[in-house]
Structure formats: structure tokens, C-alpha cells
Amino acid sequence: MKNGFEQQLSQGFKGIIHSYDKRVEKGHHRIEKRQIWCVPISQLQTLHNQDNWVGLKWVVMVVRVPHLWNQTTPEVQFYLTSLNCDARNLGQVIRLRSGVENRLHWTLDVTFSEDACGVRTGHAPQNLALLRRIALNALNLEQSLKRSNRQKSNRAAISSRYG
């Protein structure tokens, strides 16, 4: 897929239906340039087991170039979708999705110090991640006291009657 996209990109997508959007966002001492291309799956190489992807219509390539101080770290990501091919709209959907994931990770790290966890082998990392998400949902449902999730977690650890 990557090779097919690169080939089409080098040819300027001549004769191929596609959608393109370019954005520049600024904030927190950071500038991010983002380019989004959306191409019909039929115009690219066949994916492995493509018939198993019910409703698959488009492949989306996002090229991000964040500039933070004097560093740039380009990233290329691919997405598969059955949504309509509108690069601008798909770019916003992808951006919102990554924002939700970033906020969830931040909450898990603040509440449970997830980044400091040294568990790295077997199924333990996935199991602990699932347990943290279950615990986070339980903490969010607890409304008897107006406290942070970290404070609620500490209180629940001390008292078996809390919650």
C-alpha cells in the first residue's frame, strides 16, 4: 500500500480520483503541518485478505511534520475507511480520534502512573491496561465526593467502605 501511494504521489495522482487537504496548526511552541490524501482502494495494490474488509472503499495517508523548537519528526500513517472520500473531513476525524486517545492516556498516567509501570512481558501489559480502564470507569462513576480520580483511588485503597 505504501509503495502504491508513493508511486501515485510521485505521478501527481494523474488520472486517479483522489481528495487532498493541507493544514498548518500552531500552539504550545509547536507548528504541525499535515497533509491528507484519500484514494479509492481500487486504485492501489490489493491488500492482503482485502475481501475480509467489508465496505472498505478508501485508503487515507496522513503525513505529519511537527516542528517543536528546532526539531522536526515527520510521521506517515495509513488508515482504511468506508467513509466518503473527503480529505478535509477525514483529517478532522483522525485528529479528533488521536486527541481522545491522548487525553485518555494522560488521565491514565495521572491517575495510575501508567508510564512508570515496568511490566513488559507476556499478556501482563494488556491485562493491566484493561484493569486500569475498568478502574477509571468506576472512578468516573463515583460521584459521592468531588475529588480527582487519583484522590478517589487513594481513598478506595485505604477504606473498604468507600464507594
Structural features, described:
Strands 1, 2, 3, 4 and 5 form a 5-stranded antiparallel sheet that branches. The protein has helices spanning 2-10, 87-112, 124-141, 149-158, and strands at 19-27, 30-40, 58-68, 71-72, 75-81. The protein is α+β, with helices and mostly antiparallel strands and 163 residues long. It has 2 domains: 2-103, no CATH class; 117-163, no CATH class.
Q: What is the succession of H and E elements?
A: HEEEEEHHH
State the helicity in percent bands. Answer: 25-40%
Question: How confident overall, as mean pLDDT?
Answer: 82
Report how far the terminal alpha carbons are from each other: 51 Å
Tally the structural domains.
2
User: What coarse outline follows from CA principal-axis ratios?
Assistant: elongated
Query: What's the number of helices?
Result: 4
CA-atom Rg in angstroms: 21 Å
The structural class is: alpha+beta
Uncertain regions spanning at least 5 consecutive residues: none
- Strand-residue proportion: 15-25%
Biggest β-sheet: count, sense, barrel?
A: 5 strands, antiparallel
* Total strands: 5
